[in-house]
Design a protein that fits this description.
With 472 residues, the protein is α/β, with parallel strands linked by helices. It contains 19 helices and 14 strands. The strands form 4 sheets. Strands 2-1-3-4-5 form a 5-stranded parallel sheet, with helices on both faces. Strands 7-10-13-6-14 form a 5-stranded parallel sheet.
């Protein structure tokens, strides 16, 4: 089913077939909604409501057998979760007021503008969808145990923050509204987008495009496509990514780098659901769900005038903010084991054992590059591994290089705060910290115990005792 349709059908009830055909056509043309059931005999409605889950009921009032008001009472009593819109030929204010009091979402005359009626239908569908999402989200959050959906099997975590994100994704899976995924580089925003795709439309396309560096022309051509002769070199018609992603997800990465001109075009797409291939005068309907990702603070960009406020609010109907690895240190051992196994398989080696002092070292590191940085460290170390436990030398070197880069960046910047030592969520033991300090001091002094002791603020004899305890 395409993404413009409600998940469950709309039920239209009217004894006039011509009016049902007119309204069905308006829903198709104005909203691209075709998931509709029609009923001309009001007596059948109670059984239909029992047999099917309907998203909305469009109800006439004046019908033989069961009147619209009787059906409205029945729906409110037995199916209160289904919104009802009354479309009647009776132009009476008292009738309209009475229907609203009985629980109708809206009231229209058959002589009213069809676009107004269709817009009300779309609004009611959206409100019902949000209520369902919020209910499902609350249910997921109330679960005491975590049993992640198979969609998350490639995301290695035991973090409660990540489990909350999984629950949120399950709650919004059936929504067709845009999703904004925010987080630092390397936190796995693409994995979250793919998990959402697995949840909501696993058999439909997942099309990803990095919009950073695309000028307005390239952006328009990539997303909207073009017709033959649209510009010099357009020798044949080419589908855009929106069309290729129909029924699935279009993933726009690095959305914070989108140019102002392209932001306007994306806003129009999200507002109307329509777009024009380059060189074409015929609009096309967007049938893909838009998921955007960025490592930037779009609120700050909006305040600086580099990102449109209206586009920001359209994109963040559903918003996910991924925690940095330094804020979920409980995942470090899990990720280390996973990446070591992955690297060993990739390199055709036997997976090496991971020493405890390596885990202590990694738990104390702030990981500016998050999971991507940890993965690169492990692949580098495993590629050099010859046997025994995995050496910590390459990790120490990588961490020192990063710390030196930070020092260079902050050189001369008196306003830069001195970075505090970041402890992992699970604190290392005193013994582990002693080992780390001794090993690091010896590494920095190339094994010179006198200089190492001086840097640690202890005597050389005290350092020797600590070295012996480490060896034992």
């Amino acid at each position: 089913m395409d993404d413009r349709n409600p998940h469950n059908p709309i039920l239209m009830v009217d004894d006039e077939k011509s009016w049902l055909n007119t309204l069905r056509g308006a829903l198709k043309i104005l909203a691209d909604i075709t998931h509709v059931d029609a009923c001309t005999d009001s007596r059948c409605v109670p059984d239909l409501l029992k047999a099917h889950d309907y998203s909305l009921v469009l109800l006439d009032l004046t019908m033989p057998h069961l009147s619209g008001e009787e059906l409205l009472d029945h729906i409110n009593e037995n199916h209160p979760e289904i919104p009802v819109i009354v479309v009647s030929g009776a132009n009476q204010v008292s009738t309209a007021v009475n229907c609203i009091k009985k629980g109708a979402q809206d009231f229209f005359l058959k002589t009213d503008d069809l676009e107004r009626i269709v817009n009300s239908i779309k609004k009611s569908l959206r409100e019902r969808e949000l209520r369902i999402e919020h209910t499902k989200l609350a249910e997921n959050f109330s679960k005491l145990s975590h049993s992640p959906h198979p969609a998350f099997e490639h995301i290695k975590t035991q973090s409660s923050a990540m489990f909350r994100i999984f629950s949120y994704l399950e709650a919004i899976a059936l929504s067709r509204e845009p999703v904004l995924i925010q987080g630092e580089s390397g936190t796995g925003k693409d994995l979250i987008a793919q998990a959402l795709h697995h949840l909501c439309c696993p058999d439909a396309p997942f099309i990803a495009v990095n919009v950073a560096g695309l000028d307005d022309m390239l952006f328009s051509d990539a997303l909207f496509g073009h017709v033959k002769g649209a510009f010099t070199g357009a020798e044949q018609t080419r589908k855009g990514m929106i069309e290729e992603a129909a029924g699935g997800i279009l993933f726009l990465d690095e959305i914070g780098d989108l140019s102002q001109a392209s932001q306007v075009k994306l806003l129009r797409l999200l507002q109307s659901g329509e777009y024009y291939p380059l060189g074409s005068d015929s609009p096309m309907q967007c049938k893909a769900r838009i998921v955007a990702a960025t490592n930037q603070n779009l609120e700050e960009n909006e305040s600086k005038g580099t990102f449109r406020r209206d586009l920001l609010f359209r994109l963040k109907t559903h918003r996910i903010t991924l925690p940095a690895l330094r804020n979920r240190k409980e995942d470090v051992p899990l990720l280390v084991d996973f990446f070591v196994l992955e690297a060993a398989r990739s390199l055709g080696k036997k997976p090496p054992a991971v020493p405890s002092d390596l885990l202590a070292l990694l738990r104390s590191y702030h990981f500016p590059g998050n999971h991507r940085e940890l993965r690169a460290m492990i692949y580098d170390a495993v590629s050099l591994h010859q046997g025994g436990e995995l050496s910590t030398a390459r990790f120490h070197e990588a961490i020192q290089n990063e710390q030196e880069l930070v020092s260079v960046r902050n050189l001369g910047d008196q306003s830069s705060p001195v970075p505090e030592f970041l402890f992992p969520e699970k604190l290392p033991t005193i013994k582990e910290m002693n080992e780390l300090l001794v090993n690091e001091a010896l590494r920095r002094t190339n094994g010179n115990q006198s200089q190492a002791a001086k840097s640690l603020g202890i005597s050389q004899q005290a350092l020797n005792k600590r070295i012996k305890k480490t060896v034992q």
